[in-house]
Each structure stands twice: as structure tokens, then as C-alpha cells.
Amino acid sequence: TRQRKSLGLVATKANIEKVENHIIPKLILSLEESSSEFFKSKMLTVDEFIKTSIEMHKSSRNEETTADYYGIYNNHIKSIFGNKKIHEIKPSHLKQWQTDLMIKKGLSASRMKTIRKVMSRMLNDAIDDEIIDKNPLSRVPAPKVMPTEVKPFSLNEIKKLISNAEGQFKNFIATAFLTGARSGELLGLKWEDIDFDKKEITIKRSIKMGTIRYPKTINSIRTIDMIDKLIPFLQEQFELTGIKNGFVFLNREDTHYYDIKRLRNTYWKKLLIKCKLEYRPIYHTRHTFATIMIEKEDILWVSNMLGHIDSTTTLSKYAKYMKKPNIKRGKFLTNLF
Length: 337
Known about the structure:
- This protein has helices spanning about 15-35, 35-40, 45-55, 65-80, 90-105, 110-130, 155-165, 165-180, 185, 230-240, 260-275, 285-295, 300-305, 310-320, and strands at about 195, 200-205, 205-210, 210-215, 220-225.
- A hairpin with a 2-residue loop joins β3 and β4 (about 210-215).
- With about 325 residues, the chain is mostly helical.
- The strands form 2 sheets. The chain has a 3-stranded antiparallel beta sheet, with no helix packed on it. A two-stranded antiparallel sheet has the order 3-4.
- The radius of gyration is 31 Å and the shape is elongated.
- The N and C termini lie far apart (about 80 Å).
């Protein structure tokens, strides 16, 4: 704010020299001393500010997400921007960085989207702290993320996979195909969640990267039907782990699996090769359940089994897989012309 204040001096040659040589220099020094912290904060590097940015949002994220964000910074951001002053980052710098990550490192558009989140959140936090005025990343278009192509397994393929699987994993994939539950939800199942008398399974926890947590959404906490075809597999699994009175699926140390990646890399990939089937993520067991059931069963039942917020979500994802009846449309228009 510009202020005008009289010095109370007559404009003589001596007083003008006094102002120029003594009073004004003192005023400038005073301003510099009082605002040094302000200017210092304006010149923070990315490396000096990133921890503040990640930590201030820690309570709203899962532990594995926070760990992933630190990993993203160390692996994909620090070498380029770590020592750079935040206010010096330009859209052109960010565009080149994004291009290099996708071309030279071969990162997918989906992974780039997550990496951008870390960078953009830090820049927005810098705006809140008045370090910068605007987010330069907002002027760099994000790469387009193509929707994942779903390739459901056929009934014959499901039968082939289950018949060729062994031990616990046989029961695991049977449960996956016959409930549509998410992989993490299956890892989090306990025997206390299984009611053979009512033929019900309660989904109320999930495991990812060793962390036991609530499922994906509020609607994901649900009770689903144990269809008859699934019962023999769960009974067989009870013979293997039921005496432990803990998690349904146990690793060699008799504790829950750390993450679905362990099962995917150890059993799933090998099973697909054994069955001579093209690779598909293990999550496609869920998609397979949805695409098969949506054609034959009530949509509300399918939606509840999947833990969707409503049937609209289910239809938007899987309606295109419903077989259309071979009937001639618009027959009522026969006499129109």
C-alpha cells in the first residue's frame, strides 16, 4: 500500500541531502529486514516444499497412497524439479517433463495422471501459501486415458481355469468368479463373514499393500448371496483354513496375503499360461461375473453383489455386454409411408 507522509522538513538543499543520504536508506533497510521472511518463502524449491504438501493431506489418504506419492516424487519429479524454485516453473518445463516420462520411460497415461496429481497438488498448495499466483500445470493438457478394455471370460474358460487351479487358489478364483467381489475384498474375508446357514457373505474389509481397511465405498460394505455353485469351494477352503478361525485365504505363514499382486504373480499368470489363455488382469473375474449375471439376473441384485452405489452405475459399465434379442425393431411403422 502506498502511503504519503510528511517529514516535517522545509525543502532546503541541506534537508533534501539529508533525506536522500540518511532517511531514505534507513527506510529501505527497514523494509528489507521486515520482509526478508516473506521473500524467502517466495523462493522455496520444490524439494523444500514437497513434504509439506504431501503431509498436510495425509489424513485424507490411505497410507499406501501417501507412500506412493513419496515414491512418485523421488522417482519422477525430484531429478527434474527438486532444486528448482517453485515460482520459476513454467508450463513449457512441465510439458517437456510429461512428454519425457511417457516417451523415454514408457509410462502409461493412467500412471501419468497419478503423477500429475502429486505435482498439481503441490502447486495448488503453493498458491494457497501465496508462493505463486497460478498453477502452471493447468495449462498443460493431461494425456487422454483410454478406458480399460474388458474381455470377460466365457463359461468354458471359467470351467477350464477352475479345473486347472490347485489348492487354495482354486477356491480363491472360484469365489472371485462366483461373487464378483473385488480382489482386495476377497483377501480381507474372514470366516466370521461366512454364514453357510443363511448362504450369505458379508463384505466389510479390504486388504491392499498389507493394509486392512474399509472397502472402496460405503456401498461396498454389503451382504451378498452365496450362490449354490460356490458352496463346495468354500466348504473345501474351510477344511484348509477354517480351524485357524481367521482369514479365509492364508499365505504360507498362516496370515492374510499382503496384496493381490502376490497371488497374481505367483499363481494367476502361470494358470493362464497353463490353460493357454491370453493374459487378462485377475480383476477381470469381477467383470466376468457382472457381464454374465447382468444378462440373466435382476439388475438390482447384480448391483448389490458388486457393491455399486446404484443400478445406474452397473448399467453404465456393463450394459454393452448384454446380448440384444434378434427381433426386428420399428415394425409398428410399417404403414407409415
